[in-house]
Design goal:
By secondary structure, the protein is α+β, with helices and mostly antiparallel strands. It has one domain: (Glycosyl)asparaginase (Glutamine Phosphoribosylpyrophosphate, subunit 1, domain 1, 4-Layer Sandwich). The chain contains eight helices and eleven strands. The radius of gyration is 17 Å and the shape is globular. The structure holds glycine (GLY).
Length: 295
């Protein structure tokens, strides 16, 4: 869809996160390489004048394909030892959005979420209904067993884990977009759906304000509708760093959970905040020769 003609050109910006659940001792170089590669996958499109929506999808796909992150190929397991993934995507010009929940037969849930947005009148499809839709529109079907990795089997046996991946972007046309994807929480009850499938909670974009993608305790994020609330703080304060910090305070104090989020505002200013020890992020803008990896 063509952007509104009246809007002045903007400086593009892209920020990605690899989840707020990593521990500082846990293979930091691999995390850095993963988020760097993801931000570049989106940046190649944005820098050429491409759409924010394409950039966030490309960035999240790169993270879903990387076994180190809790999404797609690296998804954590349910209590039954299966994979059930959630994802959502949103473009902020007309509040168009799409999402999938509890899917196990696709490699890239974020792309299926985008197909829901573009090819159906619905916002959210779940489980077998989402799989049937994927078959209808030609999204390749995979054997769910290929998503079950030894690393996640060990993790399930050891303890719960949280984390998610996401990206937010602003393009030259002033369109904001956000995408989020996750395997959820390790050991979750089959059928549990977290914030990453819920527009307003894990993901939100409104081009008049900006875009947000969240990570952390899904139930806590849902309780405070975190992504949308972060954009409300942005509207009040016109300061993305302040908005990100206050949103994380809200998550901890009222949501009673931990996590983090990334933000971009309508001018292309980027920010992030987290309550956990580590949240891998990577930022890219025309002012940067190389991705910035502040962790
Ligand atoms: N934030 C990811 C989840 O709780 O599912």
């Amino acid at each position: 869809m063509a952007p509104p003609r009246s809007r002045p050109r903007r400086v593009p910006a892209l920020i990605v996160h690899g989840g707020a659940g990593a521990t500082p001792t846990d293979g930091r170089e691999e995390l850095r390489e993963g988020v760097r590669r993801a931000v570049l996958a989106g940046w190649h499109l944005l820098a050429e004048g491409g759409r924010a929506l394409d950039a966030v999808e490309a960035a999240v796909r790169a993270l879903e394909d990387h076994p180190r992150f809790n999404a797609g190929q690296g998804s954590v397991l349910t209590a039954r030892g299966t994979v059930e993934m959630d994802a959502s995507i949103m473009e902020g010009d007309r509040l168009r959005c799409g999402a999938v929940a509890a899917v196990s037969r696709v490699s890239n849930p974020v792309t299926l979420a985008r197909r829901v947005m573009e090819d159906t009148p619905h916002v959210l499809l779940v489980a077998d209904g989402a799989h049937a839709f994927a078959r209808e529109v030609g999204v390749p079907e995979i054997d769910p067993a290929t998503l079950v990795t030894e690393r996640q089997r060990a993790r399930l046996a050891a303890a719960g884990a949280r984390g998610t991946v996401g990206a937010v972007a602003l393009d030259r046309h002033g369109t904001a977009a956000a995408a989020t994807s996750t395997g959820g929480i390790s050991g979750k009850r089959p059928g549990r759906v977290g914030d990453s499938a819920l527009v307003g909670c894990g993901t939100y974009a409104d081009s008049t304000l900006g875009a947000a993608s969240c990570t952390g305790d899904g139930e806590a994020i849902i309780r405070v509708v975190l992504a949308r609330r972060a954009l409300d703080y942005l509207k009040e304060a016109d300061d993305p760093h302040y908005a990100a910090k206050v949103a994380v305070d809200l998550l901890v104090e009222e949501g009673r959970g931990g996590g983090g989020l990334i933000l971009v505002d309508w001018r292309g200013r980027m920010a992030y905040a987290h309550s956990t020890p580590l949240m891998p992020v990577a930022l890219m803008s025309p002012a940067l020769a190389e991705p910035e990896l502040p962790f």
